[in-house]
Amino acid sequence: MRTEEYIPKRIKELCSKHKVSKYRLAQLTDMSQTALANIMNKKSIPTVPTLERICDAFGISIAQFFAGDGMRPDLTDEQGELLEIWDDLNADERRILMNFVRTLKK
Asked: Which SMART domains does this one have (predicted)?
């Protein structure tokens, strides 16, 4: 699949998976809804900084964006397992887990 076809498809997958509307994604990325719609409708290809903002909104790296779900490039099996668990948590559960993890570092 070509990049200009893959990017909108992947963004739609991530929106569905994370239950994020296109309107909410525009807010999270500080992008206009028109700019986001142009990407989604294959009228434009995002720049790397724009793609980074989209990835940040979903809490993933660009490598993870292009690898797709279930693919965790450059991670050990344990790290991949942690990220799979993380992906299934809601915002409150993620906050609780992060607070717990931060206490382990002290």
From this structure: HTH_XRE
First to last CA, the chain: 46
Contacts of 65 (CB under 8 A, 6+ apart): 10, 14, 51, 54, 55, 58
* 97/75 Cα distance (integer angstroms): 20
83: nearest Cα among 92, 94, 91 = 94
Residues in contact with 41: Cβ distance below 8 Å, sequence separation at least 6, in sequence order: 8
Cα 102 from Cα 29, distance rounded (Å): 26
pLDDT digits (tens, 9 = 90+) for 13-30: 999 989 999 999 999 999
Q: What is the pTM of this model?
A: 0.65
Tokens standing for residue 12 = 């739609």
Closest CA relative to residue 61, chosen from 2, 14, 9, 1:
14
